[in-house]
Amino acid sequence: METSAWDRFEKKYLTCYVKYQDRYRMMLSEFGRVGLSDVEVIWDFPSPYRDVLLNSVNMTGFCKKRNLFFIGQTNYRAIATAYHLGAKSVLVMQDDIRFLRDTGLLTEIIESIPDDYDLAMLNHMKPGQMPMEEYEAIFKKTKVNRFWIRFDELTSSGCYAMSRKGMERYIKAYEEPVVSCGRTILYHDDFYYQRKFMGPDANLYVAHPVPSIQTPCGAGGSHSDLEPYFKRNEAIGIHRENYA
């Protein structure tokens, strides 16, 4: 795969956890396969300071689950780091994703991301309360080009890109529970990938077929049962055998 397809992202970050370094090594192989270089790693690690933060911020019970809150914090760090370094765009990936086997198709999808994107989902999941029919309807909408569809609400921080405006909107929404001194509640990080937080003028796009999926990998496997995720993917024409 030509690296130029990935060059449209000024910053590229991989989020990892120190106890799953085998996942990092596996991702290096995956990056080599798809021609993705200059990826910086943001490592999460055990710390009593983050435990205090977990118990001090007003957050949902779902977000309170230890690994979910810390995943959210690592994604926030990636976005905020890119923003405060002055980057105009950022690509963020988790260490459990795998890209399409067809690198030619993958190149086409990345190159065709609409230039006006504020959030481009290269991986997605169904929001928990969204009916399956509504989720499926997203991918039946008229595409803006061969691969990309506008959407209002999706989840998954597995793989996504943001413009500078997208980063700014996300950071403001994610920091609000602390800025407001607890008057608002913190949600899991991927809950903010929806129009009511990103703004009515934000350009939110999702690819179909999706460039990457999440999968159990490494000695740690997966923290959740991914079979329902795979079944929902099948329902909209995303087949895991098409991914590395």
Q: What can you tell me about this protein's structure?
A:
The protein is an alpha/beta fold and 244 residues long. The protein is 37% helix and 16% strand. The protein has nine helices and nine strands. The protein has a seven-stranded mixed sheet, sandwiched between helices. A two-stranded antiparallel ribbon has the order 4-9. Helix 1 (21-34) links the parallel strand 1 (11-17) and strand 2 (40-44). The protein is globular and about 45 Å long.
Quick description:
This protein has about 240 residues and is α/β, with parallel strands linked by helices. The protein is built from 9 helices and 9 strands. About 35% of the residues lie in helices and about 15% in strands.
SSE inventory with pairings:
Layout: E1 11-17, H1 21-34, E2 40-44, H2 48-56, H3 61-64, H4 66-84, E3 89-94, E4 97-99, H5 103-111, E5 119-121, H6 132-138, E6 148-150, E7 159-163, H7 164-179, H8 195-198, E8 204-207, E9 212-214, H9 227-235
Parallel strand pairs: 1-2, 1-3, 5-8
Antiparallel strand pairs: 3-7, 4-9, 5-7, 6-8
Helix pairs in contact: 4-7
Q: Could you spell the SSE succession in H and E letters?
A: EHEHHHEEHEHEEHHEEH
CATH topology: Spore Coat Polysaccharide Biosynthesis Protein SpsA, Chain A
Helix content: 25-40%
Widest sheet: strand ordering: 2-1-3-7-5-8-6
Radius of gyration, CA atoms, in whole angstroms: 17 Å
Q: Return residue spans where pLDDT drops below 50 for at least 5 consecutive residues.
A: none
Instruction: Examine the secondary-structure arrangement and name the CATH architecture.
Output: Alpha-Beta Complex
Question: How many structural domains?
Answer: 1
Number of helical regions: 9
Global structural class? alpha/beta
Mean pLDDT: 94
The biggest sheet, with number of strands, parallel, antiparallel or mixed sense and barrel status, is: 7 strands, mixed
Q: What is the CATH class?
A: Alpha Beta
First-residue to last-residue Cα separation: 14 Å
DSSP strand (E) fraction?
15-25%
Question: Can you count the beta strands?
Answer: 9
- Label the overall shape: globular
